[in-house]
Design brief:
The structure is a homodimer of 342-residue chains. Chain A has 3 domains: 44 residues, 434 Repressor (Amino-terminal Domain), CATH 1.10.260.40; 126 residues, 3-Layer(aba) Sandwich (Rossmann fold); 148 residues, Response regulator (Rossmann fold). Chain A is built from 14 helices and 12 strands. The termini of chain A are far apart. At the A-B interface, α4, α5, β2, α11 and α12 of A face α4, α5, β2, α11 and α12 of B. Chain A binds a DNA duplex (30 and 30 nucleotides) through α2 and α4.
Chain lengths: 342, 342
DNA sequence: GACCGAGCTTACAGCGCTGTAAAAAAACTG
DNA sequence: CAGTTTTTTTACAGCGCTGTAAGCTCGGTC
């Protein structure tokens, strides 16, 4: 059984192809009788428009790519969900491109070898710094996500990481914590993605006239809970005293909670922990994790808004949008009152 | 600056379009000199082949859709990752279609209104039963995932849920647990997706000549940790005694751990808990979660294998493949020896 | 040296749809 | 009712690429 084409429907209905096309698209100027005749032929033949052909003719694909490091990391999977929902609401489908933090894969996202796949790209780089991103000029509109500084030439959506980290630190200080550590700086991280958060952490301490102790900045070799657990375990073993911990993300916090628990350190009694991203991982951790929560829905909506404008032809300079965040207080770092009363 | 087309390259290189096409595709019978000339023209003009046009000409899109209920559920996001990797290894890109468990959205996956978007679909239905799936006949090849029974007409990949659940129960019995509960049957779940697991749970008890107590089967109203926590909390409040718990997935187990902890019930001392899916959520839970682990990589590889064969024209009857699973033992339900020694 | 076949290259007709411009039909108008 | 305007329908040229079949080269053969 051969594929049914627009021309077949036209032949059966005894009208031109264009009229069939008009019916398919609900074009207003079609007489009811025509519409009926055509619709009947469509139903009879089981006609389904071929999107590839439509795309070739119109030059629009109705698809956007979402390029993220790893889809199974809670922050990215939750973000994907919102992006998918927002995209769907705007009539786009989402092609997920997993870069696995691989520089070559990331470069390929911007420097793509082929055209006509998607109308735009939402890209969260991790292995490229701002200059590299700026250098690769791409034909298709791009909106960047992520914490690191991005070229002024490109659209970019993020939360105010410095302020958020300051708030995290302030929250711990308000509980009377005095030795607050930061976990973790990732070795070889070229994006400076953690820098903003680290900066905010330091700023938060300075604001409160607290000393900065470089030993309180824990570093890790990669982005895994295993590594963060290792870093915390070693810090404890080395006798590093701390009563508060701000983590660069919930996965790090999760590893930290594990290390603290197995070392017999109480959370929040001995150490209060603040995570970042407010993922499901933290919502059900033990203790449940206080976390800095980017407004993911707003992030997704903003990214799609900017991308949509670019797709529609906006040519201006890069827009940099800050979306809101909040501190979700849970057990790992409760409100001051809760600690006092315990 | 206009788009560069194959014809433009051909004109600059002074050859035919087809020769350029042959160079782009690394077709062997092209003389080195031609290849050089053409390549130079390609580089000079910055030519990028238009995939939409290629797709129209070849009739292949090189894309597959992955239709899952919710991308941010750990099991699905982890599965997505493997599917994406396997697909990428086979030269396919993945279009993620989130059905949100919505019957209309699921029906749309099979009954699609348009052609030429993807070459095949990997679909994990949750709101359709076997008969409905069978009824909707689709033009594009489909491979089904998921625990429920599926029509013999379609390809289907799953683990042996009955055996896996039996093993979970056996593991608990080996520790001396005698009152083992099952969490949870989802009200209004038409797929029977949980049925296999429940069946295995019952079979496991029967195998050991243990009594079946219907009160030990906890039901929930939806697929959230909140709901499972509620169900466990109420069971405890109602005085339901149990010392083992098999959960239909890690998210339920996560909610259960929370409810048990807040009720002061020790895990694993008082109740040993087995989850399902072996997600990151359980790997870092407190206590770390013993879980039934489908081999997700094998699942993804098998699904893509079957789908690839269908795309390549295989027309035979539905294949039903069982992929392997294992029980990952962690703290929430340790080995018998570990319990005895504690 | 005419002929042959293998190796390269080319011309061109689609793939299925939409945009444009023009034709045809219908609806007004005075 | 001829002339004008408006609405509806049509014909057809692309969109950019690939497959096919035919044409051209050129070294090897007898």
């Amino acid at each position: 059984m051969r594929k049914v084409r627009l021309a077949d429907v036209a032949a059966v209905a005894g009208v031109s192809m264009k009229t069939v096309s008009n019916v398919v698209h609900d074009y207003p100027h079609v007489t009811p009788e025509m519409r009926r005749k055509v619709q009947q032929a469509i139903d009879e033949l089981g006609y389904k428009p071929n999107l590839t052909a439509r795309r070739l003719a119109t030059g629009k694909t109705g698809m956007i790519a979402l390029a993220i490091p790893e889809i199974d990391h809670p922050y990215f999977s939750e973000l994907s969900r919102y992006i998918a929902e927002e995209a769907s609401a705007r009539g786009y489908r989402v092609l997920v491109e997993q870069t696995l933090s691989n520089p070559a894969a990331e470069r390929a996202v911007l420097n793509d070898r082929e055209a006509g796949v998607v109308d735009g790209v939402i890209f969260h780089p991790v292995s490229m710094n701002s200059m590299e991103v700026a250098r690769l000029k791409r034909d298709v509109p791009v909106v960047l996500l992520g914490e690191s500084t991005m070229p002024v030439t490109a659209d970019h959506v993020m939360i105010d990481n410095v302020v958020a980290a300051q708030e995290g630190v302030a929250h711990l200080l308000a509980q009377g914590r005095r030795r607050i550590a930061f976990l973790g700086v990732v070795e070889g991280d070229v994006t400076g993605s953690t820098d903003q958060r680290l900066l905010g952490y330091q700023q938060g301490l300075v604001d409160a006239r607290m000393p900065l102790d470089p030993r309180l900045i824990l570093s890790v070799t990669d982005f895994t809970p295993e590594e963060s657990a290792r870093a915390v375990r070693e810090a404890l073993a080395a006798g590093l005293g701390f009563d508060g911990l701000v983590c660069r993300d919930d996965r790090f916090a999760t590893g930290a909670l594990y290390a603290l628990r197995t070392a017999g350190v109480g959370v929040p009694e001995d150490v209060a922990v603040v995570g970042w991203d407010d993922t499901e991982l933290g919502r059900w951790a033990t203790p449940t994790l206080t976390s800095i929560a980017p407004d993911k829905r707003e992030l997704a909506a903003t990214a799609l808004q900017l991308l949509g404008e670019r797709i529609d032809g906006y040519q201006g300079i890069g827009r940099h949008r800050i979306v809101s965040h909040s501190l979700i207080v849970r057990e790992s770092a409760p409100l001051a009152a809760a600690v006092l009363s315990s």
